[in-house]
Amino acid sequence: MAESRGRHRADETAPPAGPAAEAQFDPRVLVRERGLAGYAEEFKRKVRGGELGSLPVVIGLVLIWVIFQSMNSQFLSPQNLSNLSIDIVATGLISVGIVFVLLLGEIDLAAGAVSGTSAAVLAVLHVNNGWNPVAAIAAAVATGMLLGLVHGAFFAAVGVPSFVVTLAGMLGWTGLQLWVLGPSGTINLPYEGLVASLTSTYFNQVIAAYGLAALVTAVFFAASVTGNARRRAAGIPSRTMADIVLRTALLALGSFAVAYVLNQYKGLPLALLIFLLVVAAADFVQRRTRYGRNVFAVGGNIEAARRAGVNVAAIRVSVFMISGAMAAVGGVFAASRIASASQATGQSNVLMMAIAAAVIGGTSLFGGRGTAYSALLGMLVIQSIASGMALQGVSSSIQFMVTGAVLLAAVVIDSLSRRSQKASGRA
Questions:
Q1: Pair 261, 294 in one domain
Q2: How far is CA 407 from CA 193, 322, 341, 363, in A?
């Protein structure tokens, strides 16, 4: 009898055989092996389940470009696109840091003030105190990290809500910015100096832009092939070679098209190159490192992450330090763009645009979903709207209203997406 009961329990716990086992098998693991047909089915499944990813923002960006180009043929001109690529950098860098905070489902309202304070520190040390520009930039970034550490410490250790502690930081660091700048309120940077050259330098050799496009394509192809080899060695389904070649070809097409447009004006802007490198590095950290997985884990389910051994407090503090550092880097580029640091640096709508870019680009306000490329896509949308309306002579008031509507639409899409995922059991 005991043996019979043991066999009965074993039968209950063993996986079902035959058709039942096939029903339990998740067909998504074979998507890569099935090539284009598998990806088509996977795409349909994701859309039905509310997993839209970057699709809405890419479609929106294409529509924006088509509309403004039809209204003014100068919109997609090499000069306008080149200027647009530089205009997105300062706020875009701040937005990259905001993405890390949003992945936890938190908010950083002090990023703009941290940006302005760091720019003020840079200007005072470099211009007033005669520091080497590299040392002054390093000090500015260190200032941003320190201010971010303060936010993270109060949030993670004391338990002050991130909204409150960063709101207090926004007020306090704005005052600190004014104090650092002194009575004049503005410090001009040398036009021929290193800081100003960050946004005024172009690699006008044709090979620079094309070489970067070729390098990006080659790295992507090599990484895809290497990743495939590792998956096969581990017995995990991998992409077909046709799939890798197609994806590489699409990336090459886009990269070389951008390189061609940039070469029609002044060449590859240094500021854009730095921004792209930062975005790529941040994306690598988020998706390919243990730290990045821990950030997503804390943002997805903090209690589950804690029970899995994740140091939640350390993750929280580090995320705000990253946000502070990126805000400082954004402040450096903002000061470089106008060759000065003033009371207006990091103020006005900078914070709102940085947060809006992250959300419009696809980062969820509820945490656990988003990438560094959200900052790039979101800033392209926002700056494209601003650039297109400026060409049409539309007032800034209308620009703000349109950008606000786009932001609201992005949040609505995110909310509907989460609702669809819950309905399909995927959230």
A1: no
A2: 37, 24, 29, 12
